[in-house]
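Side project, low priority. Logging it here so it doesn't get lost.
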Amino acid sequence: METRLNYAKARPDAFKAMMALENAARATSIEAALAELIRMRVSQMNGCAFCMDMHAHDMIQAGERPQRIFVLNGWHDSPLFTPRERAALAWAEALTTLPSGHPDDALYDALDPHFTDAEKVDLTLLIVAINGWNRFGVGFRMVHPARDR
């Protein structure tokens, strides 16, 4: 498999805009471990192998338990995720699959015990950013490196 296009080289200003969005998403109140779970889950849903590889690697280096990464696709049926993580993952899935239906009030209301209004905005910004990166990764067929571990 070969990368179709180096988008950062073809349009540096577009890459700069994406990096500004990414930097804003990283500067939010969402804790790093939860942000990486969201990035990984959305990347799984969008089929972005480049992003899945990058985020799994980052998660393990940050101390995430590999088992949580292995079962993330089945988080609904796993006891390894906290109520806050579950609410965030459900919100991320709903916003990533907008064409199949808008998030209902119950899903939105489930965020209330775990997230402030500002954190809801921060979480949504994070979801928007990773969905954008996934579109670049999948669209231009970015190829991840082969890793020894």
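Brief comment: Helices lie at 7-10, 12-26, 32-46, 49-61, 66-70, 83-96, 105-109, 117-139.
Revisit when time allows.
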